[in-house]
């Protein structure tokens, strides 16, 4: 049984409020797990069934008629979530990467819809029946302390935190301001080296050893800053092919991004400002 998950809004800054709980934001893949008629099924947030991809979760000991929500991750040698390794595991169950299903909510329990219970009560219910294993863990949470928890994510290069109203209902299939995510972005300076033709995307490069090294494609830029780029790039064109227009790297900008990929690219870069 698929249930469309509740989604979060973004906020720029963490805060301390005892009417909210704070959780670690996990860098993985959202996963809905249901058990009906002794059959466990797994779904991504977009209703793609992925039961066959994760056989290690099929023996989970929960009652029939139960649907839980969580994030599936792979950790690196330091115990930190590794999104690239997670994607390798997602694409092939032959991958050696071991997964963990980090569960943070319950939507149905023994056939009853519990989504309208306050979040803290759902947490207590979840903790009463879900027994952690090597593959299945309960996401830890605390009241308030959003600022201190976020500082820890910065100190340990983790993805960020999630702040949720302690009395919030689980709003199936909706994005709600009751749940907020604060991303621990990294920042750097980059040069715009070209643009994609078919859909918006700017090629980025970073300076390394006196040369410009490719750093990925930036898709997130507001309309005002895009207009500035369109006004300036034509005089900088060097060459083009059927996919890209390449320009002289004279436009410099500040970008924020999640982390560096294993090949040194910026993961999900977003424009912050031009640097003159």
Automatic annotation (TrEMBL):
Catalytic reaction(s) noted: ATP + (deoxyribonucleotide)n-3'-hydroxyl + 5'-phospho-(deoxyribonucleotide)m = (deoxyribonucleotide)n+m + AMP + diphosphate
Coiled-coil stretches: none
Keywords: Ligase
Pfam families: DNA_ligase_A_M
One GO BP: DNA recombination
GO MF annotations in UniProt: ATP binding; DNA ligase (ATP) activity
Residue ranges occupied by any ATP-dependent DNA ligase family profile domain in the UniProt entry: 92-182
Family: Belongs to the ATP-dependent DNA ligase family.
PANTHER family to which the protein is assigned, alphabetical: DNA LIGASE 1, DNA LIGASE 1/3 FAMILY MEMBER
NCBIfam families, per the entry: PRK07636.1 (NF005796)
Identification of the protein by name: RNA ligase family protein
Organism: Bacillus salipaludis
């Amino acid at each position: 049984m698929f249930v469309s998950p509740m989604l979060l809004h973004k906020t720029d800054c963490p805060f301390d409020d005892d009417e909210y709980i704070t959780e670690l934001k996990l860098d993985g893949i959202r996963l809905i797990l249901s058990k009906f008629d002794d059959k466990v099924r797994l779904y991504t947030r977009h209703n793609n069934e992925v039961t066959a991809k994760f056989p290690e979760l099929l023996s989970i000991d929960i009652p029939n008629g139960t649907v839980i929500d969580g994030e599936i991750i792979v950790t690196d040698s330091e115990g930190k979530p590794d999104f690239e390794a997670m994607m390798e595991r997602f694409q092939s169950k032959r991958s050696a990467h071991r997964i963990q299903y980090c569960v943070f909510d319950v939507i149905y329990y023994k056939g009853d819809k519990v989504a309208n219970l306050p979040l803290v009560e759902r947490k207590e219910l979840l903790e009463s029946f879900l027994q952690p294993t090597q593959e299945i863990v309960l996401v830890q949470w605390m009241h308030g302390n959003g600022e201190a928890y976020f500082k820890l994510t910065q100190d340990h290069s983790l993805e960020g935190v999630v702040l949720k109203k302690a009395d919030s209902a689980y709003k199936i299939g909706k994005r709600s301001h009751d749940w907020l995510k604060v991303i621990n972005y990294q920042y750097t300076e980059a040069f715009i080296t070209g643009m994609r033709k078919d859909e918006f995307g700017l090629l980025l490069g970073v300076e390394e050893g006196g040369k410009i090294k490719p750093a990925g494609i930036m898709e997130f830029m507001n309309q005002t800053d895009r207009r500035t780029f369109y006004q300036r790039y034509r005089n900088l064109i060097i060459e083009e092919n059927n996919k890209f227009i390449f320009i002289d790297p004279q436009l410099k900008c500040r970008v924020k991004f999640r982390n560096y990929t294993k090949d040194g690219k910026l993961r999900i870069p977003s424009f912050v400002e031009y640097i003159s």
